[in-house]
Write a structure and sequence with these properties.
Elements (H helix, E strand, L loop, with lengths): L7 H20 L5 H16 L13 H12 L2 E2 L22 E3 L6 E5 L12 E2 L15 E3 L22 E3 L6 E2 L13 E3 L4 E5 L13 E3 L4 E6 L20 E3 L4 E5 L11 E3 L4 E4 L13 E3 L4 E7 L11 E3 L4 E5 L12 E3 L21 E3 L11 H5 L6 E3 L6 E2 L13 E3 L4 E5 L9 E3 L4 E4 L14 E3 L6 E2 L13 E3 L4 E4 L13 E3 L4 E5 L12 E3 L4 E4 L5
Parallel strand pairs: 3-5, 5-6, 6-8, 7-9, 8-10, 9-11, 10-12, 11-13, 12-14, 13-15, 14-16, 15-17, 16-18, 17-19, 18-20, 20-21, 21-22, 22-24, 23-25, 24-26, 25-27, 26-28, 28-30, 29-31, 30-32, 31-33, 32-34, 33-35
Antiparallel strand pairs: 1-4, 2-3
Membrane topology: Single-pass type I membrane protein
Protein name: Leucine-rich repeat-containing N-terminal plant-type domain-containing protein
Subcellular location: Cell membrane; Secreted, Cell wall
């Protein structure tokens, strides 16, 4: 269910004024009466769609007003969020109260929305020790959002099972604990349930929520739910036996304590998002996941899954956009000419085994902006097609492999300024110019030997972080840093650089961290360093610096 759109009440008076002007023009013969009639009809339809919470002509129900005031009595309102609620004559119209929306025909309260936004200065603006059962007297309530209300570690009361008109329930981030009451299974029209970021516990696969056949969104992330699933087919469990068909589209169980094997979820055929990351699940990923043909997001990261993931696992996943198998012990075993059925936006496979060959199937992906194939045992060089297909990158992590060879220069122009991490590999040769067109570049722990291309950067660079430590850079530092004024961190430590520190370093007015340790620098620190007023850390140890200029 959607909340009524209160902003329409601001548009209607403007629309009325426009129609009056149009009517005057029509009388003067400058505008067609047909257009005016159509505009008046549009205004009528617009007015009829406005929630009663913003109109004066629908009376609040006495019993529902009293129920809401009882609910308020159990809350501490530190910021006056509910100051419009009251028994006073001028406050009696509860359909005008903050967070209340009424049906525009019957006047019954249909929506109660008291959530605080995550970036609000009034977060946790409502506090309460107990839930008031008076909410059950709102018989027509279909939308209830109390997220980010502090309920002080209380348990979810069983009376929610009596609120059988609820379609939307959000109790996320409310400091609740205990288990989900059995009565939850009585909410037979519930479509959206969010209990995330609490301290709830219990056996997840035996929860009464699986008796709610109408659910489309279920978010239980960041709780203490456990679960040991030993059935070959989860749908055989008695918790699932009441539903002949599930409508679930979003299942979010991240950051819990769920153990055991990956369940067979093919009976949830409508799933679009499956998030099981940061649990304690183990064993192999079943091939049956490849039958979830509506899946757009698959996140199994940070578990203990192991074994082979093959082409069969992705057989029908043509809608998949986000794939995260990282931080497991999985082996991706696909043929060199595999063409996946999907086009991914995010490819997150760190700590899986993809190598030793560079994954050719990446060549088929045209839309991805986030790539993480770090620590995946790749030991080949980076093919030229990879850089040609990377113009849409925002993040690319390839660190912790054994990638070798050189990176040829390219005329590549990225659409944005991505973050590139090639650290801890065996790359060698000069650093190509095109890599300096990024916002962050991490190249530490390789065999790069040249920085001379810095002087070929003609326009002001967007580079904020540059780490080329632990390489084989030698010679003097190029004296052309004036185009790198956005640098915040510069790390040149543990190389074979020599000579004096160039004066153009003083152009780095945003720099905060500057590492030059373990090189062969000599002479004095340049006086221009006084321009680096934001500098917090400077490391020139293990060099031949004659004196150390006191910055600032």
């Amino acid at each position: 269910m959607r909340k009524p759109r209160g902003w329409l009440s601001f548009i209607i008076p403007i629309f009325q004024l426009v129609i009056i002007i149009m009517l005057i023009k029509a009388i003067m013969g400058r505008l067609s009466f047909q257009i005016v009639v159509l505009s008046m009809l549009s205004l009528y339809l617009l007015r009829s769609s406005v929630a009663v919470g913003s109109t004066p002509n629908i009376a609040c129900k006495d019993g529902e007003r009293e129920a809401l005031l009882k609910f308020k009595d159990n809350l501490h309102d530190d910021h006056g969020l509910l100051s419009s609620w009251g028994k006073e004559e001028e406050k009696r119209e509860c359909c005008r109260w903050f967070g209340i929306y009424c049906d525009n025909k019957s006047g019954h309260v249909i929506s109660l929305d008291l959530h605080s936004s995550y970036n609000s200065t009034k977060s946790w603006s409502l506090r309460g020790k107990i839930f008031s059962s008076s909410l059950t007297e709102l018989h027509y309530l279909s939308y209830l959002d109390l997220s980010r209300t502090d309920f002080s570690g209380n348990q979810i009361p069983s009376f929610f099972g009596e609120m059988t008109s609820l379609e939307y329930l959000d109790l996320g981030f409310t400091n609740l604990q205990g288990s989900i009451p059995e009565a939850f299974g009585n909410m037979t029209v519930l479509v959206h349930l969010d209990l995330s970021y609490n301290k709830l516990e219990g056996e997840i696969w035996k929860s009464p929520i699986w008796n709610i056949c109408t659910l489309r969104t279920l978010s239980l992330s960041s709780n203490n739910f456990r679960g040991v699933q030993v059935l070959s087919k989860l749908s055989d469990h008695k918790s699932f036996s009441k539903c002949t068909n599930y409508s679930l589209e979003i299942l979010d169980l991240r950051w819990n304590s769920i153990m055991g094997l990956f369940p067979n979820l093919t009976f949830l055929s409508s799933l679009k998002e499956l998030r099981l990351s940061s649990n304690q699940m183990n064993g192999s990923v079943p091939e049956s996941v490849g039958k979830l043909s509506n899946l757009e997001i698959l996140d199994l990261s940070n578990n203990s899954f192991e074994g082979v993931v093959s082409e069969t696992h992705f057989l029908k996943l043509s809608e998949l956009k986000h794939l995260d198998l990282s931080l497991n012990q999985l082996i991706l075993n696909v043929s060199s000419d595999w063409v996946p059925p999907f086009q991914l936006d995010d490819i997150l496979l760190s700590n899986c085994t993809l190598g030793p060959h560079f994954p050719e199937w990446l060549r088929t992906q045209q839309n991805y902006t986030w790539l993480d194939i770090s620590n995946t045992r790749i030991s080949e060089s980076i093919p030229s097609w990879f850089w040609k297909s990377s113009i849409g990158f925002q993040i690319a992590y390839l660190s912790g492999n054994q990638i070798s060879g050189t990176i040829p220069n390219s005329s590549l122009q990225w659409e944005t300024y991505p973050e590139i991490d090639l650290s801890s590999n065996q790359l060698e040769g000069p650093i190509p110019l095109f890599l300096f067109q990024v916002s962050a570049l991490y190249l530490s722990g390789n065999k790069f030997s040249g920085l001379n291309c810095l002087c070929d950067v003609r326009d002001e660079s967007h580079l904020s972080f540059l780490d080329v430590s632990r390489n084989q850079l030698s010679g003097t530092i190029p004296n052309c840093w004036s185009n790198f004024k956005n640098l915040i961190v510069l790390n040149l430590a543990n190389n074979k650089l020599s000579g004096k520190i160039p004066t153009s370093i003083g152009s780095l007015t945003q720099i905060e961290v500057f590492h030059l340790g373990n090189n062969n620098f000599n002479g004095e620190l340049p006086i221009t360093l006084k321009n680096c007023s934001k500098l917090v850390v400077i490391d020139v140890g293990h060099n031949k610096i004659l004196d150390q200029y006191q910055v600032g």
